[in-house]
UniProtKB/TrEMBL annotation:
Keywords: Membrane, Transmembrane, Transmembrane helix. Coiled coil: none annotated. Residues 224-248 are annotated as: Disordered. InterPro entries: CysS_C, PH_YqeB. This is Uncharacterized protein. Residues 8-156 form the YqeB PH domain. Pfam families: bPH_10 (PF23494), CysS_C (PF23493). Residues 174-224 form the Cysteinyl-tRNA ligase anticodon binding domain.
């Protein structure tokens, strides 16, 4: 057993380097190909975007380094954005820390009944099956996530959501749900379709307060009933993880 005080799992560094180098390489290739590319675009549609016309007006000896630099800068920006949006997970004997998209959260060890990966999402549940967190974790190595929890002897479930069989797809107006729940799910569906992730996360919290756990499967919402009413014990931003689940 690793006796370190905590274990942090983050997006592998090679992804950032791949974005930087890949974008720079594309810039170099574009520098060589921009003149024939612009000629082809003009022949097809009669015009080309201004930046492409400007790049095509440069001698190849200038176009290659200029576009390589532009590509490299774009790659640096993409790498920074990817790190900002990726989950940063820190597990210790006393708590789980999660940071994503500038939001940070701490969940005490005693609140966590089980942890697992539901597809590409990391999920933590309380003993009453309340969802403490659901965060997109597609950029993190799954084995490292599991090992971090195992290292501190958190309960880990290997086969997806242990309550998978309880989820059902939401259909607006379904008689199994009262109008309050249908209204919240309807509002959340609208928020998701309009890319209002924060609103969708808040509505997921509201649904959980009245006994429903909700998750997203493509464009559909699925829900299950919480075994017993109860509020998750956590510290930090109020968020059932939906801000990180609509990703990715």
């Amino acid at each position: 057993m690793n006796r370190s005080e905590s274990i942090t799992v983050r997006m592998p560094g090679w992804i950032s380097w791949l974005l930087r180098i890949g974008a720079g390489t594309i810039g170099v290739l574009l520098g060589f190909l921009v003149k024939p590319l612009v000629g082809w675009v003009v022949a097809i549609v009669g015009d080309a975007p201004g930046p492409l016309r400007l790049a095509a007006s440069l001698p190849t000896g200038w176009a290659v380094p200029v576009l390589a630099l532009v590509g490299l800068l774009a790659g640096i920006w993409l790498a920074h954005t990817a790190r900002h949006e990726a989950l940063l997970l820190t597990v210790s004997a006393t708590a789980v820390h999660l940071r994503q998209k500038g939001m940070e959260r701490r969940i005490p060890r005693e609140a966590v009944s089980v942890a697992f990966l539901d597809g590409k999402e990391l999920v933590l549940l309380a003993s009453d099956t309340t969802q403490l967190a659901r965060y997109g974790a597609s950029d993190l190595p799954a084995r490292q996530i599991r090992d971090a929890f195992d290292n501190f002897q958190y309960a880990w479930f290997d086969h997806g959501d242990p309550h998978e069989h309880e989820f059902q797809s939401w259909v607006d107006g379904h008689p199994m749900l009262d109008e309050t729940r249908n209204r919240l799910l309807r509002s959340r569906s609208r928020a998701l379709s309009e890319n209002r992730w924060g609103t969708a996360a808040d509505l997921a919290d509201d649904l959980q307060e009245i006994g429903l756990v909700v998750r997203d499967r493509g464009t559909d919402q699925e829900y299950r009933t919480i075994a017993r009413s109860g509020k998750p014990r956590s510290e930090g931003a109020s968020d059932s993880g939906s801000a990180a689940t609509t990703n990715t």
